[in-house]
Specification:
Blueprint lengths: L9 E2 H4 L5 E12 L2 E6 L1 E2 L13 E5 L6 E10 L2 E6 L17 E6 L1 H25 L3 E6 L4 E5 L7 H16 L4 E6 L1 H5 L14 E6 L3 E4 L14 E9 L2 E8 H22 L6 H41 L4 H4 L1 E5 L5 H12 L6 E5 L11 E7 L7 H9 L4 E5 L3 E6 L4 H13 L1
Helix pairs in contact: 2-3, 5-6, 6-8, 9-10
Length: 432
Amino acid sequence: LELDMASKAVRLFWKDPYLKEFTAKVIRKAVIEKKHALVLDQTAFYATSGGQPNDTGVIKKLDVPNRGIPVVDVVEVKDEIYHLLGATEQDPDPSSYFQEGDSVSGEIDWTRRVDHMQQHHGQHILSKAFIDVASAATVSFHMGPDVSYIDLDKRDELTEEVQEKAMALANRTIFENRSVTSGFYTMEEAQKMPLRKLDPSLHPPIRIIQVDGYDMQACCGTHPASTGQVMGIAIVHYERIKRTTRLYFVCGLRALRRTSSLSQAVRRMAGRLMMPPLDTSALERALDTTLEDNTNMRKVQAELEKEAQKQAARSILDQFKDAPPSKRRVCVMEMPGRDMMFIRGVGKTVSDHPGIRVALLVPLPVDAKVPSTVGFFITANADVDVDLRAVLKAIYAEVPGKGGGEQRTVQGSFNTGDLDRLDALLQEKLNE
């Protein structure tokens, strides 16, 4: 089927996805997404669509080959491809550099193109593998800068064992180096073909990608000439989302880079555990033992922390047990070297004591630049009819600071280190 290209640019990347450089004429200039853009009569730059991101590169005037304007984005609007230009120090207004009718050359970022072909075609192979292994269809595809993912229409059925089988089938298809071809067809022709999915809203001619003896799917993206060029596929993560499974994967050079990164991480981990890096089973056992030891240590630490909180609370209460009732109403204590989590535990124990109405505990200065600034935690006894938020607001009217909380617990900082003054203010505001 011949394409009618009278009203839109020739997509050179459909005929030859390996084309790195091309020549064209500027049809017109435009502004897209607040960026200057060019429309060319033909292009090798792929525009974002079908889950595949756009190409980038440079466009030059044919008669000025040493001066290029970067193409930072490519979008398609109503069958027209717009090349969005980036400003440079030499050309802060790239639009003024080109005129309609100019003969230009374009050069795509080849490394980016190869990466996108590997990820996109790898997705086709992997999606077909999940249909063959688990009758799970792909409902969406996203190609990220580091990792891509597909959403599959099954959930709990896609166990890790099933995922391994699908990945094995996909990699076997890559190893077999099957040929990949493309062609354009009418809707009637496409409906007779064994496609994985055919969107009835597609406008013919419909471009179909075929993997010899394996897969057939409508797609407008760039694909390699054979499956072997995908190099390999690795599933790196999955998660359940409602009734679907989101499967994260990497292909080609990304897979190699990730393997190298993981190998380095394993070597570093093995070194810290003093284990041989090649014996991954022994390394995993050592890691499990270490994690179990850490869990037990945290439990012991938590018990010691609770006991220390109780001892601190008893020490505070002992200091106030012989004080007259007026002095027992408010407990103000400095607790240097303790974090707010510890302070909160002590405060709750102290304020629960029937002889104490409100406890103000000060851990340590919170701002090294302002030594007089101290952190605080205030908690009230459950039997006390008070809203500490209102009390704190009244104190802040006289002593600047910041903080907040709930009716019976507030925390923050005061811009003073004078605990006697804070004691007096707290007593005063509680009596109002």
